[in-house]
Amino acid sequence: MDPSLPDPASSLSVDSVADSLKSQSLREQGNDRINKENKNKKVKLSLEDLNWDHSFVRELPGDPQSDSIPRQVFHACYTKVLPSAEVENPELVAWSDSVAGLLDLDSHEFERPDFPLKFSGASPLAGAVPYAQCYGGHQFGTWAGQLGDGRAITLGEILNSKSERWELQLKGAGKTPYSRFADGLAVLRSSIREFLCSEAMYFLGIPTTRALCLVTTGKLVTRDMFYDGNPKEEPGAIVCRVAQSFLRFGSFQIHASKGEEDLGIVCSLADYAIRHHFPHIENISKSETLSFSTGDNGQSVVDLTSNKCAAWIVEIAERTASLVARWQGVGFTHGVLNTDNMSILGLTIDYGPFGFLDAFDPSYTPNTTDLPGRRYCFANQPDICSWNITQFASTLMAAHLISDKEASYAVERYGTKFMDEYQAIITQKLGLQKYNKQLVNKLLNNLAVDKVDYTNFFRSLSNIKADPGIPEGELLVPLKAVLLDIGKERKEAWASWVQSYIQELVASGISDEERKASMDLVNPKYVLRNYLCQSAIDAAEIGDFGEVRRLLKVMERPYDEQPGMEKYARLPPAWAYRPGVCMLSCSS
Hints:
By secondary structure, the protein is of the alpha+beta class. Among the domains are: 199 residues, no CATH class; 78 residues, no CATH class. It has 18 helices and 14 strands. Strand 7 and strand 8 form a beta hairpin. Helix 10 packs parallel to helix 12, helix 11 packs antiparallel against helix 12 and helix 17 runs antiparallel to helix 18. It is globular and about 75 Å long. It starts with 7 loop residues before the first helix and ends in a 33-residue tail after the last helix.
């Protein structure tokens, strides 16, 4: 990407004002009655004592019908529908104490005999008002019309002791009006992947939806994993996903697609989102003077204080840019970046055929459906998300919420923010003080030519010493474990790069010990490689959930050495390259 850059001072103003407003909003929340009552104690609630709220169904238009028959839904943001997955002796596979803490839920609640029944949907949770959300989306660049929660059913929103709003959703809980020709169910295989990656991404420091728990249904589900006409029965499962909101770009697109009649719903949904999830934008006043010149000649002016929706789309663009930069930093490929899989909160959402880079390959896609054009491959993610932002901005323009200039500025800010964040991340990963484009480009080229393991390379890089006197024959010793099977010519190319890198290290003036410590905080030793998921899946499918739980514990400390856990940092074994492990379809 090579976006045109606005005035750097303007960029700083947007970020600094937004940050100050967020801080102000958080301070105000700190004075909330609930916070005062619980200031000196850690709240631990039972399931029955959770503080439910239902702002989405209370404030937005709903479907007058409440059946789960697949159909087109008109003039509504949701349909009330109950979980309906068949359940027989459900079991708790895994859970997240960290997410329980977000909800003020006592971790002992996981031990309740009826816990699997409640989180499989078989036994209702007191206070829940279940519904499925209506949304549409562009899939692989083509408008697909109505999509919606075809197998995810939201239970409602929990307000915790900090006045934070958390939405709970059961994925795989049964049919909804948005299920189309599917059964509304999920299998253990895909549910383990979503549960583990939701938590792994959080502990890597990447914005993401979370996962409270994973239960089996005790029933079998038929799936054709490879879409090759050979379906088989697999164990069914349900994962409880948690996020402050599951609103997507497609949540707005579906209503704009239906013409003037439903544009008012786009406006209502935007007001709702800003009120509950971007409250600091409500506080922006003209006193902040957030006006910026756009375009090459600077003749066009965008005033973010005169239109809260303009400020909102800019923040969504920046959050998205920051998210994608972090994906690129850890080598994460989402696999299905349709507009219905794009969170307005800048979260990683909908874990399907995702994959972390093993051997560095910019054209890598973990999605077999994406193979013909590799639209969603690793290298394309920044540009695809820019395209998605453009589609979202077009929706707001259609609803007359922003102008074309404001839409263009949001896309421009996306490009600027992505480049700033990515360059900062890659600079940190290298342990340098400033970005060196030539050094980075040569490195990425070397990694691709020799198919070097992305995660292990950067983790090993911190072992290089800032010593220009190292003999040429010893330059690659710290990288011996990651530069495998390379010939003389390639060794010379790498030695040349390491020499240039050492010069940069020397110029930075930072001690080897200090640099190694800082690099190890941004270069994980452990990422959720697909083969690790598959090992846990294989064990779980025969009733052994121990590996799922062990893997979760390892992924909760990705930047620590964790002595004794080194096997989870190994390169993929030969069997990991079989279909269904290194690459997957959307079947789940």
